[in-house]
Amino acid sequence: MKLTDYRAIREAGKKIGGDILKYAVESNKQELITAAKLLGFWNGKMMVFDAESDSETLMDFMVFEKITSNFPAYKRFQMSNPKLDDLQQENMNGILNNYPSLFEIKSIDSIGNILILEDLLDANRKEYMLMDIGMSKTASIGFILYARLIPIRDINMTSGVSFGFEKIYKDKLLSAISLAAFKKRRKLTSAETFILMHEKNRQFGLETRTE
Known about the structure:
- By secondary structure, this protein is an alpha+beta fold.
- 48% of the residues lie in helices and 20% in strands.
- It has two domains: 3-96, no CATH class; 99-204, CATH 2.40.50.
- The chain has helices at 3-27, 29-39, 54-64, 73-79, 86-96, 133-138, 170-184, 190-204; strands at 99-109, 114-119, 127-131, 144-152, 155-165.
- The chain has a five-stranded antiparallel β-sheet with strand order 3-2-1-4-5.
- Strand 1 (99-109) and strand 2 (114-119) form a beta hairpin.
- The chain is globular and about 40 Å long.
């Protein structure tokens, strides 16, 4: 994908993400408070953010995860038949096929802004190609990343929020997921995995820069 196309799609994605969040809050304000409580951003009376990225984490959780409704916000938004231009529709199609997981960065092409990710939660360790300007310049091989991939054209983009960890924490993160699943006697839901990775990110995560 050309860099100019990438930037245009990325900007359209930010716009539609904001529209979905607005739709979600206006249709169910209580869901925002519930999401904040689940992520530890609610002190009983108001939102409390410790870092600039916390509000983006809350937005991603609100948009993509099933919280109190039968469907996540992005699906409810799509079901409302919104008027979208071509780039927004392309983003919407990618959003409908979003894929969150824990990945390990296997290679980086900083010139082409491409990273090859290995899915650590997939039995076959499937690989994905991610295009991200910021991450391709700041991440390193072996870096562990919890991200939500949005497939668009011939590449994947992130939803905008990612949790990054040094490679020494790989086994610790996988063990945490396995232990949580063992306690629940089932596979974790997408929302449960997001919350767990968010908690681990607050404990020993690194700041990531997506662009």
